[in-house]
Design a protein that fits this description.
The complex is a heterodimer of chains A (304) and B (438). Chain A is an all-alpha fold and 304 residues long. In chain A, 72% of the residues lie in helices and 1% in strands. In chain A, strands 1-2 form a two-stranded antiparallel sheet. In chain A, helix 4 packs antiparallel against helix 11 and helix 13 packs antiparallel against helix 14. Chain B has 438 residues and is of the alpha/beta class. Chain B has two domains: 162 residues, D-Maltodextrin-Binding Protein, domain 2 (3-Layer(aba) Sandwich), CATH 3.40.190; 247 residues, D-Maltodextrin-Binding Protein, domain 2 (3-Layer(aba) Sandwich). In chain B, 37% of the residues lie in helices and 15% in strands. In chain B, the strands form five sheets. In chain B, strands 1, 2, 3, 4, 5 and 15 form a six-stranded mixed sheet that branches. The relative contact order of chain B is 0.16.
Chain lengths: 304, 438
């Protein structure tokens, strides 16, 4: 037995060596921090004084007293839902359009995909300048074409979330479009040909052939979109910082601030224990929603 | 990273081929704005001190975290810029005392700014010394005031509201508004505007006499701002405004008034970041129900400059450079070249002014400016929920009820202080005879 194991190791030594860097990185940057977080959920710790075991107090505080956290959960759902209803149909529409025989489609594909590879922080900063109400180009264009009389306050309490969704959708459409394009290219051409012979219109082919056959791709795209939207906070951090008055505060931004609470030159004490508890609950919320979605979508998409 | 305090053998000095051992001293600064000046002075120092090789590195992004990591991993600089109160660094074992190097001369030069408890002195030991200071004033556009018929800047917050209203009514059609604040950065609004207005009126949300928080005293200040926001008097989009876009709009003549520190002198200068296209001035912060408030605004960043890190192996040599950094000549030249306002009395005496707009208005005055004692919430206080500055912003934007929010803050901060005091993580500051009006 032992010699068989030895032989196996000897035989696969190069494989083990090749995956070793990944394993080490996984342990250092994923497993260790995860264990660290799971331990600190039961502690009060500010990074300076010795940590103090407080049992489940962090969870009691989170579930019974912290209205701001639950507001951020609500905001996350609004943000994710808004992003989904804009991104998924639009990226599907663009994929269908760019899968047809139009001129310069490769250039269009590249342009639409480009936001995916631009830094989120840079992109959000550019949008911050574009949308600001006093001299942003968005308001200037709307005023120039007489669509509005006075500048719209894009970062006000009423519209800040809409602005955040627009920016997020702009950054995500290209990515999902590529997934849809890949899916569209797997639909056999013969199906369209026979449909055409039967006299089917373009809309009928889209409704009865393309969309049903895109089921598995749509399932994956929706799952990715849900997870990414629930986890997203980078663009909001740059765009609004979670404000005004918490109107765009989302779950992961809330968790981030528990670990890094200082603003500008003002130092606030970090709450590593409480932040860890919030992070675990947030991960559970994200996980549960994803599982529910997968269950529902599995039964739905399996029809096709 | 350059390893600090490493003796090296340098080339020959002078005509004799005598080899001189050079010692590397590494200095970290958190500020890039004055790097040209500091580099120039550093080169002069290195030329005059052949046994030392002082190097400087600037870390403007996340300086505090970088510094803490460097000290923890024993890669710290020998000297570093102190941006927080000394208590913060002493608690984290990052600084070493400098008492044995500081001569009597320093005590005479610095006067009352020599030792400030918790700010640069902890348990009687001195860790850093004063250098520059930020004074706070109400900045106003003189051209707009003249056109609207306002003869002088407001002396009370009620006047501030009236003047802002007048300006907005007059200039709204041209995109000119009476008042602005950078509400995207809630901490700036909190500590530079709301808190400073309270200080100017002789109070703070932390009662130093009893050692307890009471945020209800802030009501008149947050309310007047809330009123200006609600009535559309404030510059549109203040919710998403940070200080730089605000400055550009003021420089372009679109804002009547705002409150900030003396950074603006250099920023609005002809060769500054945003040269002002208007005549502007700065006035003492207004009073509440009085034109002559008896309090004084807090001088920010005062009392601290550079310190010697706990890991420095040649503190005596590091001090030689700090001594040079804090000399009257160095400090006076720093101010004369427009890099900041120095507050060391002996250097202030010899420094010439540049004659820039706002320079005189922002000058530190005993009747207007003081250094307020450290509060527990700036020394690591842990509490539940939103901090005071996020709450002020929520009140101003009308997202929460003012009384409910201020009472809630009072209750949460006091509970946090009680718990931290019990756990021994934060000290309750009590100064029985504290009177900021004297």
């Amino acid at each position: 037995m032992r010699s068989r194991i030895k032989r196996s190791i000897k035989h696969n030594i190069s494989t083990y060596l090749m995956i070793m860097p990944c394993i080490i990185l996984l342990i250092v940057f994923v497993i260790y921090p995860l264990c660290w977080v799971l331990r600190y959920v039961f502690y009060s710790y500010d990074g300076l004084h010795p940590e103090k075991f407080i049992g489940i107090d962090n969870f009691i505080r989170l579930f019974s007293r912290d209205r701001d956290y639950w507001k951020s959960v609500y905001n996350t759902f609004v943000y994710a839902f808004g992003k989904l209803i804009v991104t998924v149909p639009l990226s599907f529409f663009l994929a269908v359009l760019l899968n047809s025989k139009i001129k310069f489609k490769d250039i269009f594909r590249a342009i639409i995909f480009m936001p995916t590879i631009i830094s989120t922080a840079v992109m959000s900063l550019v949008f911050y300048f574009m949308f600001n109400s006093y001299n942003g180009i968005v308001n200037q264009v709307l005023i120039k074409y007489s669509l509005i009389d006075t500048p719209i306050n894009w970062f006000g309490r009423d519209l800040a979330m809409v602005t955040a969704v627009i920016v997020a959708a702009w950054g995500a459409i290209g990515n999902y479009m590529i997934y849809f394009l890949a899916g569209l290219q797997t639909v056999p051409e013969e199906m369209y040909e026979s449909a055409k012979i039967d006299g089917a219109s373009y809309m009928q082919m889209l409704t009865f052939i393309t969309i049903p056959l895109m089921g598995p791709v749509l399932q994956v795209v929706l799952m990715l979109a849900i997870i990414v939207s629930l986890k997203g906070f980078q663009s909001i951090m740059v765009l609004t910082g979670g404000g005004p008055a918490g109107a765009t505060d989302v779950m992961y931004l809330y968790v981030y601030r528990s670990f890094f609470p200082s603003q500008g030159e003002m130092s606030f004490a970090p709450q590593y224990g409480y932040g860890s508890a919030a992070a675990v609950v947030t991960a559970l919320i994200t996980g549960i929603i994803t599982i529910i979605y997968l269950r529902i979508s599995k039964s739905h998409f399996n029809k096709y | 990273m350059v390893s600090a305090c490493t003796p090296q053998t340098a080339g020959t000095i002078g005509s004799e081929s005598e080899s001189v051992k050079k010692t590397d001293i590494l200095l970290w600064t958190a500020q890039r704005a004055d790097i040209v000046f500091r580099e120039k002075k550093l080169a002069e120092f290195n030329n005059a001190n052949p046994d030392l090789n002082v190097k400087m590195e600037a870390y403007t992004e996340d300086y505090a975290t970088t510094l803490e990591l460097a000290i923890a991993s024993e890669q710290a600089p020998d000297i570093f810029q102190v941006i927080n109160n000394a208590r913060y660094y002493v608690d984290r074992n990052m600084l070493q005392p400098i008492d044995k190097y500081v001569t009597k001369d320093f005590e005479q030069r610095y006067g009352s700014l020599f030792k400030i408890d918790e700010v640069n002195t902890v348990d009687g030991k001195l860790y850093t010394l004063a250098e520059r200071g930020i004074t706070f004033r109400l900045i106003y556009n003189k051209d707009i005031f003249e056109k609207v018929g306002l003869k002088e800047p407001p002396k009370t917050i009620e006047q501030m509201y009236e003047y802002a209203k007048k300006i907005t009514e007059w200039g709204k059609k041209d995109g000119i508004y009476g008042y602005a604040m950078p509400l995207k950065t809630t901490s700036s609004v909190g500590e530079r505007i709301i808190d400073q207005l309270a200080y100017r009126n002789g109070f703070s949300f932390y009662d130093y006499k009893t050692g307890k928080y009471d945020f209800t005293v802030m009501k008149p200040i947050v309310n007047i701002h809330r009123k200006m926001f609600e009535e559309g008097i404030m510059f549109p989009g203040v919710e998403g405004l940070t200080i730089d876009p605000l400055r550009t709009q003021f420089a372009a003549g679109k804002i009547g008034m705002y409150i900030n520190g003396n950074w603006e002198i250099a920023i609005f200068a002809k060769d500054g970041q945003f040269p002002a296209q208007c005549n502007w001035g700065a006035a003492p912060l207004p009073g509440i129900d009085t034109e002559n408030p008896s309090g004084k605004t807090d001088i920010k960043n005062a009392g601290k400059s550079f310190g010697i890190s706990i890991t420095c192996k040649h503190p005596d040599l590091a001090w030689r450079y700090m001594d040079y950094l804090l000399s009257d000549e160095y400090l006076a030249q720093y101010q004369e070249e427009g890099y900041g306002t120095i507050i060391v009395p002996s250097a202030v005496k010899i420094a010439k002014t540049r004659g820039l707009p706002g320079e005189e208005d922002f000058a530190m005055k005993e009747s207007l400016d003081m250094i307020w004692p450290v509060r527990p919430d700036t020394a690591g206080l842990q509490f539940e929920g939103k901090n005071a500055y996020d709450t002020y912003a929520a009140i101003i934007l009308g997202a929460v009820d003012v009384d409910e929010a201020l009472n809630d803050l009072t209750q949460r901060y006091n509970k946090g202080l009680d718990e931290c005091e019990r756990a021994g993580t934060v000290k309750r500051v009590i100064i029985p005879g504290f009177d900021p009006t004297n």
